[in-house]
């Protein structure tokens, strides 16, 4: 009777391995070759500051557990650099104040 329990446990183990993937783990997802909107935006706006419309319009590619980390890091680095750069008070900030539409 014990051999039946051992057989059931072994069979359950095989099913789990088949459902999860190979015993050494599943392969990482292949890199996609689609256009990188963040790289395109940063290259396009290299000489000019990013605007709120740029940020609202960008779409990050979803990854297995959220968004692609390298895209988020590049976008945040560009924004941090822009915020650290002293701004000329005569230069428009891209923000609209009260009554400016």
Strand numbers in spatial order across the main sheet? 1-2
Find the count of extended strands (DSSP E, 2+ residues). Answer: 2
Summing up helix and strand content along with how strands pair, one would put the structural category as mainly alpha
The radius of gyration is: 25 Å
Backbone shape: rod-shaped
Q: What is the overall number of helices?
A: 4
For the residues shown, what is the average pLDDT?
Answer: 76
- List SSEs in N-to-C order: HHHEEH
Distance between the termini: 80 Å
Low-confidence spans: pLDDT under 50, at least 5 residues? none
Largest sheet: 2 strands, antiparallel
Indicate the percent of residues in helices: 40-55%
Strand content: under 5%
Region (Disordered): 78-101
Organism: Nesterenkonia xinjiangensis
Protein name: DivIVA domain-containing protein
């Amino acid at each position: 009777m014990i051999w039946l329990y051992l057989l059931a446990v072994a069979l359950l183990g095989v099913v789990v391995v088949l459902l999860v993937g190979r015993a050494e783990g599943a392969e990482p997802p292949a890199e996609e070759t689609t256009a990188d909107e963040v790289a395109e935006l940063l290259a396009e706006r290299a000489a000019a500051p990013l605007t709120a419309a740029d940020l609202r319009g960008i779409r990050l590619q979803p990854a297995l557990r959220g968004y692609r980390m390298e895209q988020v890091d590049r976008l945040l680095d560009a924004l941090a650099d822009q915020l650290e750069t002293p701004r000329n008070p005569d230069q428009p900030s891209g923000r609209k104040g009260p009554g400016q539409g």
